[in-house]
Specification:
The chain has one domain: MFS general substrate transporter like domains (Growth Hormone, Chain: A), CATH 1.20.1250.20. The protein has 16 helices and no strands. Helix 6 packs antiparallel against helix 14. The relative contact order is 0.14. The model has no long low-confidence stretch (mean pLDDT 83).
Length: 411
């Protein structure tokens, strides 16, 4: 076992140095992701007991992201990409603090905190996508995203479990005398520490800023338009995946401790499988991994809609934990390969495609969240929680033939 681990570490050391630094940075920051994606939503749900407000928070987050992508494009001409990447990570801690340390959590402050979190995501993802594009090539991208999603999956196992212990001792055992709220505030401190460590590490990389004389375009190759449709279909679920699981678990399973247990157990299978998929799969395997991801997600959504019970939620969360990394290790290399090809063909900056792609995601996110809010308002919250994700999972199956077309055109 030890020999195998040393062998994998030696293989990692054969990768380009900037790629290694980016992976280590993302590995540390991956410990933050479960906190800001899952437990912030759980905190809002605990505070206001209204799932529509949780979705409004997420809409504010997603509105801040494309705005920041545009701002980031202009700043890249003046500020190092590593500094802007660090800014995104640090802002996530600021946004979380704004919410967790307020005594009165109003809808306005939830929206402001959400928009600020969107700004942090915008700086983080726009620069992360560019750095991933620049530090990898088509041959090692399966490995890069496999290892990165392995970090994220392991974090989805370890962090919720530790948070469950934290909530038990702060709430049930009354550590520090503040109950579960103290637990949330300790989480915020944890986030700040990790973002600072990630910021220090990424500064060690020798990253080159993109040359951006122009990065906003409104007309692209037809193949890129297909990618934008694919991004919109992807975006449909993103608002749900960081909010609805927390709401469902709190309503149908139990408290934050139960949420932690469900997330931890469901991540065990995914972790090891995903590492080896990224390690040994080839570019031609991507479409198969992509298809499996969407089929698994539909099965989970269907099971949840039919049963609408604690067991159905566990199945859905398990499918979600499997879907996300399987999707990521196949989707991102497909997207980046198209960018590599078209940036040369159309003579446009690579960042312009990354920016444009974000607006495709935003359209999907907006439509997905609006669907949930519409069903909750005009039918019932139960209807929205039960059926909206099934409707979206069904529509998303069209991503499979679309992705096959894109892959065929890039080979």
């Amino acid at each position: 076992m030890l020999k195998a681990i040393k062998g994998e570490f030696s293989f990692f050391k054969t990768m380009p140095e900037n790629m290694q630094i980016l992976l280590i940075t993302n590995m540390i920051y991956s410990l933050v992701i479960p906190v800001i994606e899952i437990f912030v939503s759980a905190y809002i749900m605990r505070s206001v007991d209204d799932s529509s407000i949780v979705l409004l928070y997420q809409l504010a987050v997603f509105t801040g992201i494309p705005v920041t992508f545009v701002i980031n494009g202009y700043l890249l001409n003046r500020i190092k990409v590593a500094h802007l990447y660090s800014l995104g990570m640090l802002l996530s801690g600021v946004a979380m603090s704004m919410m967790m340390f307020l005594d009165d959590l109003s809808i306005f402050m939830i929206a402001v905190s959400g928009f600020l979190m969107g700004l942090s995501y915008g700086f983080f993802w726009s620069n992360r996508d560019f750095l991933a594009l620049e530090t990898t090539n088509d041959d090692n991208r399966n490995y890069y995203y496999g290892l990165e999603t392995f970090f994220y999956t392991i974090s989805a196992i370890v962090i919720p479990a530790l948070i469950g212990v934290l909530f038990f001792y702060t709430d049930k055992m009354n550590w520090f005398g503040g109950g579960v709220i103290i637990g949330y505030r300790l989480l915020t401190v944890f986030v700040f520490v990790l973002t600072i460590v990630s910021t220090l590490i990424v500064q060690k990389g020798n990253f080159t800023n993109p040359k951006l004389k122009k990065f906003i375009y409104f007309k692209y190759d037809k193949l890129w338009n297909k990618v934008l449709i694919l991004s919109a279909l992807k975006g449909l679920t993103q608002g749900y995946l960081v909010t609805v699981p927390a709401v469902l678990v709190l309503k149908l399973v139990g408290n934050e401790g139960a949420l932690s247990t469900v997330l931890s157990i469901s991540g065990i299978v995914a972790g090891i499988a995903l590492y080896f998929l990224g390690r040994f799969s080839k570019p031609h395997h991507r479409i198969y991994i992509f298809s499996i991801a969407y089929v698994l997600f539909f099965i989970g959504a269907f099971t949840h809609a039919v049963l609408f019970s604690a067991f159905g939620v566990v199945v859905f969360v398990l499918s979600k934990v499997l879907y996300q990394p399987l999707h990521d290790i196949s989707y991102y290399p497909i997207q980046l390969k198209v960018i590599n090809l078209l940036s040369k063909k159309e003579k446009k900056s690579e960042f312009s495609y990354i920016l444009n792609h974000e607006f495709g995601l935003y359209l999907g996110r907006f439509l997905g969240l609006v669907l949930f809010i519409f069903l909750a308002k005009y039918f019932s919250e139960t209807t929205a929680l039960r059926y909206s994700i099934l409707m979206i999972a069904g529509v998303q199956l069209f991503s499979i033939p679309l992705a096959k077309y894109i892959v065929k055109r890039t080979n």
